[in-house]
Amino acid sequence: MDDAASPPGVVAGNRRGANTYDKSFWKTENLKFGEPWYRLEKAARLLRSLAKGRHCSLLDVGCGPATLMRMLPSNIEYYGIDIAVQRPAPNLLEADVLQVPIRFGDKHFDIVVAEGLFEYLGNAQEKKFDEIAQVLNPDGVFVVSYTNFGHRKAHISELFSNVQPFDAFRTSLSRHFVIDRVIPESHNWKHAQPNRPWLKAVNLRVNKSIPLVSRRLAVEYFFICSP
């Protein structure tokens, strides 16, 4: 389904989303993400920069098969939460975050990251922002990605249950966090992460919004936030 199916600016709410699919669905779906892909590469670069070589703890919400863990240096202590954990481990928690609060025991974290998650959270967005704020250390950083549905040819997956314009997501996020930076995850004429080597190389180094261009060609955005 592309953006022609919905009038511009209209939020496609109450779509079929993650709450429709159980653990068995995601147990299979997550297998598609066992190898690093472009967004994870850029996220790992960003997280290494935010850690600045210091020891810090990180919570990956909606971690899938925890592929990000393999891409981070040893100074970042990794924890993950997902509805379907592929390989149980002490630092991985299996939980459906639509049904239970986002937390990992009584731990608090220096960095919380949520990639490709909020598109699936239906009407729970505000509640989940609040829960993440509660597990973030006072000087911590929250990094969240969100799809740019204002792209010139946006694709809206049938799995998504939380589809909204860029400004609506940003306004909601700003109720719970200070938004320090907004970085385009990538620019592409098609609404897809870049796969050509030269295009990936260029996009990995673009960490600023480009006036006019980003609104139409940014595939996703990273929001870097403080408590």
Written overview of the protein:
By secondary structure, this protein is of the alpha/beta class. It has a single domain (3-226), classed as 3-Layer(aba) Sandwich (Rossmann fold). It is built from six helices and seven strands.
Please summarize the sheet with the most strands.
7 strands, mixed
Shape: globular
CATH class, anyone? Alpha Beta
- Nearest-integer average pLDDT: 89
Number of helices: 6
- How would you classify the helix and strand content by structural class? alpha/beta
Cα-atom radius of gyration: 17 Å
- Trace the largest sheet across and list its strands: 3-2-1-4-5-7-6
What is the fourth-level CATH superfamily?
Vaccinia Virus protein VP39
CATH fold description: Rossmann fold
- Estimate percent helicity: 10-25%
Q: Mind telling me which CATH architecture this is?
A: 3-Layer(aba) Sandwich
Roughly what fraction of the amino acids lie in strands? 15-25%
Number of domains: 1
**Which regions are unreliable across 5 or more consecutive residues at pLDDT < 50?**
1-14
* Quaternary status: single chain
Distance between the ends: 36 Å
Order of helices and strands: HHEEEEHEHEHHE
Find the count of extended strands (DSSP E, 2+ residues). 7
